[in-house]
Amino acid sequence: MRVASATVRALNRLTARWAGAVDGGTVFSAAGVWPLLAFLADGATGPARAELTEALGLPADQAAGAARELLAAMDDMAGLDTAVGLWTDRTLELRQEWRAGLPAGSHGVLSGDPSADQEALDAWAVERTGGLVERMPVTLTEDARMVLAGALALRTDWARPFDEQVLRPKTGPWQGRYLTSLHRRGVRPDRIGVASTPGGHVTALKVAGDNGFDVHLVLGEDAMTPGQVLAAGVGVAERTLTVTGGGRLPYGHVGPGLYVERQPTVSPEPTTLDVTTVAFEVRTEHDLLARHRLFGLTTAQDTRYGHFPGVSADPLAIGAAGQSTVAQFTAQGFRAASVTALMPVAGSGPPQFRHESTVLRAVLDRPFAFLAVDRETRLVLVAGWVTEPTLHPVVYLNGSR
Q: Which of 244, 199, 249, 192 is nearest to 220 (CA)?
């Protein structure tokens, strides 16, 4: 099943807006929170409904249908597992029409023991993410009436793994540190390019997975903010930002971390792409209410009123909202998982060089953005900013610093 282009655009816009609030190393998934906001909007009224509509980028009366279509499409994507869970207090009576709009089998009942219920919710998060996320991102309180949660787990392997090496940057924030470097050389110069944005130039590298997902690594100019680079990455993924491909770049320093050079070779070779980047793991806990305007949850927090009469006749307000997300980029592939919850209350001998070849040499040795994208729909599923790459374990175990 395909996702409607309007839904993809709306969700990617939320990714870009969230990116604008990024400060420091992080990972987040707008795809994890968007369906939950859509289900809430379907049952909301008044200002809360209007704010959720603005955050979603779709009319509230279309939101639940779009969320169901999105979840079904994501469920059909090889390498992506999704789930929605709903738990309610025993005394809370839901509107049948609203509950029927959620995925089948998603509804459970809270026992009334916050400790036992928290343990059960945490176990759900672990199970639905293959252990990458260890707990539900909200803590149950005695006045909690309901928990609406979503989980996604993404995995893809590289068709051609990287080689692990050691990288010690000579400049920049990672200067002097021994990092786990990932290196690969191939004949696909089209996998990299340079784009111009109002904030500066970016170099965008696409690392293709083996099951329909691509991970875009985006390096901006030194003065660019993480939000500017991530927003550019969304434009690259959507193909709304013009990118000059590697095969059309001139010789020289053509973009951040990117050089087009002539190098001696043993035999004639086509233009090659030589990439050096770093392994990383990023884990982040987000308090979504700290950015309530971004998610349309400003009015919905006001406990003096009920904002979701379409969910239940009982008055409900949002007491907590959070997301736990993790991403891992290694020599073999990429793994990411997110749980969102809304809670109302190698060498040989010297070669003989007789030829020259054009080489695009890319080095990502300072903070950069990453975006995991479904290749067919261009839907951004996970995005983030790398500030702490993986240290090289052997070098550090041997005592080098």
A: 199
Length of the chain as a residue count: 401
- Both tokens of 206, joined, read 């696409």
Q: Tell whether pTM > 0.90.
A: yes
Using CA atoms, how far apart are residues 156 and 56, in angstroms rounded to an integer?
A: 28
Give the span between the Cα atoms of 65 and 61, in whole angstroms: 8
Q: Is 48 helix (H, G, I), strand (E, B) or coil?
A: helix
Single-letter code of the amino acid located at 11: L
In this prediction, residue 151 carries a pLDDT of 97
Please state the φ and ψ torsions of residue 299, each to the nearest 5 degrees.
Answer: -65, -35
Q: For 182, how many CA atoms within 13 A lie in the half-sphere containing its CB?
A: 19
Q: Quick one: pLDDT at residue 392?
A: 86
Answer yes or no: are the C-beta atoms of 151 and 337 closer than 8 Å. yes
Task: State mean pLDDT over 123-141.
Answer: 96
Domain boundaries, the chain: 5-155+287-344, 157-279+348-397
Percent of the chain residues past pLDDT 90, beyond the cut: 85
Classify the C-alpha dihedral 25-26-27-29 as positive or negative: negative
pLDDT grade for 349, boundaries at 50, 70 and 90: very low
Domain 157-279+348-397: assigned CATH number: 2.30.39.10
Q: Cβ(35)–Cβ(102) under 8 Å?
A: no
CB 273 within 8 A of CB 186: yes
E-assigned strands of 77-145? Answer: 80-88, 107-109
Q: What is the DSSP letter of 312?
A: B
Residue 184: pLDDT over 50: yes
Dihedral over alpha carbons 285, 291, 296, 300 (to 10 degrees)? 90
Tell me, which fold does domain 5-155+287-344 have in CATH?
Answer: Antithrombin; Chain I, domain 2 (3.30.497)
pLDDT confidence band for 350 (50 / 70 / 90): very low
CB-based contact 368:386 (threshold 8 Å)? yes
Rg from Cα positions in the chain:
23
- Distance CA(106)–CA(375), nearest Å, equals 28
Average pLDDT over the chain reads: 92
Whether 400 shows a pLDDT value over 80: the answer reads no
